[in-house]
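G., the chain you wanted modeled:
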Amino acid sequence: MILNLTPVARFGYRVGLPRPGKWWEVLNSDAATYGGSNVGNLGGVRAKEQKSHGQPCSAEFTLPPLSIVAFRQETA
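Predicted structure as tokens:
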């Protein structure tokens, strides 16, 4: 779960993750369904083995303004 509590969208925001692979966006409080501007990650992101924030992997996220986005890793 990532919160962006600023009124500015953040693009290419790198966040550390524990494992590589596909991470699905399961909640975006900025979605049009909730009356938001519909800025998001087009359903998910792909993490690769690039260390960040003390984690072995990371991905670049789009963080909508004043929002909460939540992700889950794709299972086999």
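Strands lie at 2-4, 10-17, 21-28, 44-47, 57-63, 67-73.

Shout if anything looks off.
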